[in-house]
Design brief:
This protein has about 450 residues and is mainly alpha-helical. It is built from 23 helices and no strands. It has a domain of about 80 residues: Serine Threonine Protein Phosphatase 5, Tetratricopeptide repeat. Helix 13 runs antiparallel to helix 14.
Length: about 450
């Protein structure tokens, strides 16, 4: 298909100026169908054609649109460096004024995703300064939204909430419901970082209501709706309310399947986790394998790592110890290669389960001690209490087991305390794994 577009463009070059519309339409169609690699190819072909046959200002808008969309899609397939290069090119091409502000916001967000937090802050402040000078409200709103995102990643949730609230106030003035939904989604994620699951649910429900208003006519709103459903499900998964989590995740998967592949992969992973918790192991493991394959196909590293961890746990739970060990080994190898210390903690925890069930309690204990250090370092509280619970199982005496159970219970209380909604807090405290720890103390 791609070569056909190129041949047609060359063939018609001598007859009339290059028309970017067919390529733009084809790329948008591929994007709507969830075929991100094909859409990237088409946007790249468009940029190459414009470079080979520049026809002046008439193509400027098409070139900027292609650079912007190409950068966004490259992120979806895990090509962060190429996405950054596309946004940098977009910034260089953008005319002074509003286009430059939009480019700086995209560039700042991308640097945030790549861990370049200081540069992200500088870039977004530059965007805000330009927006203030031009009295460009949309630019200010997006600049504040970007700074909110960076502060979420920096672990400064209170500052993040302040920036995101400013952004929403401006977006309400503009009547931009899609961007409001995006900011409410970020607020929901921020509350989750604080452990305020009830507040996260309220924010995400607001995001869902706003995104759904435009989901039928706007591909970004459609995608955002799925993203919010995934996050809502994860809130209830955090509380061990797997039945409610499945409601959101099944709805999200029905929308994403065959259209938004990176969200389809993550939704399959979440559904797999929830089904395994509900002892529907065969179904759950099937979803986890589907997630892992999709994540590999579209180069989604983080989803693949989480799918490997979930598969290792599910297979060990099922009694297929060797498959569980192999997925844990793959996770450990990849985590060590990329210095992903949180993922390494997961891998060590899974391997510890394998050795405990093999009767090698001392080996399991050594692995869990290493996992404990990494879980502290990466603030993985849900994993922390589960490691202490396992260490209690293999402790040399009752006193040491009691210490580990007491620490696990304290972490559980720390998780429950920020949840002000009594119903949601009780859902967590009455979950079977949580009750098992609290009863040990009694």
């Amino acid at each position: 298909m791609l070569s056909g577009w190129q041949d047609k463009a060359v063939e018609e070059k001598t007859l009339k100026p290059f028309d970017p519309a067919p390529l733009l339409q084809a790329a948008a169609a591929a994007e709507s169908a969830g075929n991100h690699p094909q859409a990237i190819q088409l946007y790249t072909a468009l940029l190459e054609q414009i470079a080979a046959d520049p026809a002046g200002a008439a193509l400027d808008e098409a070139r900027l649109a292609a650079l912007r969309e190409r950068g966004r899609l490259l992120n979806f397939v895990g090509e962060e460096e190429e996405a950054l290069a596309s946004y940098e090119h977009y910034h260089l091409e953008a005319a002074p004024g509003r286009s430059a502000i939009e480019a700086l916001v995209l560039l700042g967000n991308q640097r945030c995703y790549m861990g370049q937090y200081q540069r992200a802050v500088e870039t977004l402040h530059e965007a805000l300064q330009l927006a203030e000078g031009l009295n460009y409200t949309a630019g200010r709103a997006k600049g504040y939204g970007g700074l909110g995102l960076v502060h979420v990643y920096l672990g400064r949730p209170e500052e993040a909430l302040a920036y995101l609230t400013k952004s929403i106030a401006l977006l309400e003035q503009l009547g931009d419901t899609v961007e409001q939904a995006r900011m409410w989604n970020r607020i929901g994620v921020t509350h989750m970082r604080l452990g305020q699951v009830d507040k996260a649910v309220v924010a995400l429900q607001e995001a869902s209501a706003l995104a759904r208003q435009k989901a039928k006519e706007d591909s970004l709103a459609f995608e955002l709706t799925i993203h919010v459903l995934n996050n809502l499900g994860e809130c209830f998964q955090y509380l061990f309310d797997m039945d409610q989590a499945l409601v959101y995740h099944y709805e999200g998967l029905a929308m994403a399947a065959g259209k938004v592949f990176y969200l389809e992969a993550d939704l399959c992973r979440n559904i797999g986790v929830e089904l395994c918790y509900l002892d529907r192991l065969a179904e759950g493991i099937e979803y986890l394998h589907r997630s892992l394959k999709l994540a590999h196909d579209i180069n989604q590293y983080n989803i693949a790592m989480q799918a490997l961890f979930s598969l290792a746990l599910a297979e060990i739970q099922q009694g297929d110890l060797e498959s569980g060990y192999e997925h844990g080994r793959q996770l450990k190898e990849k985590a060590e290669q990329s210095n992903a210390r949180g993922d390494l903690a997961d891998a060590l925890y899974a391997q510890g389960l394998y050795y405990r069930l093999r009767g090698a309690g001392e080996v399991a204990q050594q692995l869990w001690q290493q996992a404990l250090f990494l879980a502290h370092e990466t603030a993985r509280r849900m994993l922390l209490w589960q490691i202490h619970a396992e260490l209690a199982r293999v402790a040399a005496n009752r006193e040491l087991a009691g210490v580990h159970n007491r620490i696990a219970a304290e972490i559980i209380q720390q998780i429950a305390y920020p949840i002000q909604d009594k119903t949601l807090r009780e859902k967590f405290l009455q979950a079977t794994p949580v009750v098992a720890i609290l009863q040990q103390l009694e």
